[in-house]
TrEMBL record:
Pfam family, one: 2-Hacid_dh_C
Domain ACT residue range list: 396-470
Record EC number: 1.1.1.95
Domain of life: Eukaryota
Protein's pathway: Amino-acid biosynthesis; L-serine biosynthesis; L-serine from 3-phospho-D-glycerate: step 1/3
Entry keyword annotation includes Oxidoreductase: yes
Organism of origin: Hondaea fermentalgiana
Name of this protein: phosphoglycerate dehydrogenase
One Gene Ontology molecular-function label: phosphoglycerate dehydrogenase activity
PANTHER family for this protein: FORMATE DEHYDROGENASE 1, HYDROXYPYRUVATE REDUCTASE
């Protein structure tokens, strides 16, 4: 009898709850039922042991776990995406001795030497990757992923808030109420009168009918443009590098295209920045010349990165006297934070529960896909790569090499010399990096495969190689870089 049956058998006894002295017959019944329950518990314990043994066998069959190192507070929705039988989450702050196979992070500044040799991938739960030494990781054959679009709505909403903060005396008004209550709080009737009378100090202007210039029309910029149009604004956009997919997302018929950054800056009442920070490309995109070209009452909304704006030139301009336009940002700057025309808040653009969950879950999926199948999607330094599902009875080899002529030939002849037939393969490249995914029959011994990988690793130009899975799709060999 299972435990649940034993419990069912006890039900009549519990109905005797109100009886204080049981008859002999009832007492015998209770004893018998207690015996049954004890027996059932014993059997159940046996079953639990069987189940945990089965679970342990499953864990063992899944092979050694992959360790995912984390920096920053990563949403549990993302961390829970990793099945615990295959993955272990290792906070990097704990300085554990575990081998780290992939890293998940947010704004933590990640230098190359914080990335162990065993690491195969890094994922930024978010959009901007300027906090990561991407060049150093590319050199080591490590793809860096990000999660474009996952936090776009959160940043869009705060950017719209930025437009309102720039156009109405919201922060100044709130601060003024605080000051008056402090001064006249004892006499609240007087305080209320003063607040009402002083409201004339905070007269603003409306967004409707004004021109918003959006710099960078990617996931966030396009969304800001859409909402601004819905608010009745005229929107001009500038993005010389827009992707085809990005162009499809735009409200094409109503969005005006600026022919240059300067044109956008000259014509806008509000300028909202939504470009990545790239040291050699977008550093001080808004420089002294751009600032001078702005209308005197134009405001800049910067929820992208602080370094996009030359803050010293901005301070100079704000102090030149004839400017009424404000600067709203979520990046603290030592030369601007205390200026009355500057509103600075913490780096809050993507700090919503929804955005944090979206970004962490997307990053986790990208890492798992890469670790288990070699697929590369949303990498900022590696080409996109997706090969069909692993054919049955096959092994998959992923090779990262320098993008120089002749590499594919060297790799395929190494396989040929080992008498290994290729079932399917892809070879893709981006800048200096090429990436190969090769599926071979799973009829080779682990020793042969180890020798093959050793031979591939020794080829001049190969940066790293991995054998990602076996015939049952489970992670197989996981070799360190060449
Ligand atoms: N404050 C915050 O919490 C957050 C800030 N961000 C920042 O926003 C940036 C944009 O994010 P997404 O829209 O998700 O990226 P995205 O990659 O979807 O879009 C960026 C767009 O900028 C364009 N672009 C690049 N250089 C440009 C230039 N010189 N002039 C004009 N356009 C240029 C690109 O062609 C692309 O269309 C991120 O790189 C990040 O720095 C993103 C999320 C949160
Ligand atoms: O996604 C981005 O680029 C961000 O700036 C978000 O940063 P966070 O993850 O909130 O530290």
């Amino acid at each position: 009898m299972m435990l649940s049956q034993a419990n069912a058998a006890l039900r009549p006894v519990s109905r005797l709850g109100g009886v204080r002295f049981m008859s002999a017959a009832v007492s015998d019944e209770v004893k018998m039922l207690e015996k049954l329950l004890a027996e059932a518990k014993e059997r159940d314990a046996g079953k639990c042991a069987e189940e945990s043994a089965a679970e342990a066998a499953e864990v063992a069959a899944a092979g050694p776990k992959f360790n995912i190192g984390t920096f920053n507070a990563i949403s549990s929705a993302g961390l829970n995406t990793f099945p615990t039988r295959k993955y272990e989450i290792v906070p990097m702050a704990d300085k554990s001795d575990e081998e780290i196979h992939a890293i998940l992070l947010r704004s933590h500044k990640l230098s190359g030497d914080q990335v162990p040799d065993t690491t195969r991938a890094v994922a930024r739960c978010g959009s901007g990757t300027n906090n990561i030494d991407v060049a150093a990781l590319t050199e080591r054959g490590i793809p860096v992923f990000n999660t474009p679009g996952a936090n776009a709505n959160a940043v869009k909403e705060l950017s719209i808030c930025g437009l309102l903060l720039a156009s109405r005396g919201i922060v100044e008004g709130i601060n003024h109420v605080g000051t008056i209550v402090k001064e006249d709080g004892e006499d609240f009737a007087k305080c209320k009168k003063r607040v009402e009378s002083d409201k004339k100090m905070f007269v603003g202007r409306e967004l409707t009918g004004k021109t918003l210039g959006v710099i960078g029309l990617g996931h966030i910029g396009a969304s800001v443009a859409q909402t601004a149009i819905a608010l009745g604004m005229n929107v001009t956009g500038f993005d010389p590098a827009i992707s085809l997919e990005g162009a499809w997302r735009l409200p094409g018929d109503i969005l005006k295209r600026a022919s240059s950054l300067e044109q956008l800056v000259r014509e806008s009442d509000y300028i909202s920045l939504h470009v990545p920070y790239i040291k050699d490309a977008t550093h001080h995109l808004i420089n002294a010349d751009m600032l001078k070209a702005m209308k005197p009452n134009a405001a800049i909304i910067n929820f992208a990165r602080g370094e996009l704006v030359d803050s010293a030139a901005m301070r100079q301009l704000l102090e030149s006297g004839d400017r009424t336009g404000r600067y709203i940002t979520d990046f603290v700057d030592e030369s601007l934070h205390d200026h009355p025309k500057v509103i600075t808040m913490p780096h809050l653009g993507a700090s919503t529960a929804e955005a944090e969950e979206n970004a962490a879950s997307m990053a986790a999926m990208e890492i798992m896909d890469f670790i288990e199948t070699g697929t590369i999607q949303n990498s900022v330094n590696f080409p996109t790569a997706k090969l069909d599902r692993l054919p049955a009875e096959s092994r998959r080899i992923c090779i990262v090499n320098r993008n120089v002529p002749g590499m594919l030939g060297l790799i395929t002849s190494t396989l040929g010399r080992a008498n290994i037939n290729i079932m399917q393969q892809i070879n893709v490249s981006r800048d200096n990096i090429a990436y190969n995914v090769v599926d071979i029959a799973d009829s080779h011994s682990p020793e042969d495969l180890a020798k093959l990988q050793d031979d591939i690793s020794k080829l001049d130009g190969v940066i790293s190689s991995r054998i990602v899975s076996g015939k049952d799709g489970k992670p197989g060999f996981f070799y360190v870089n060449a």
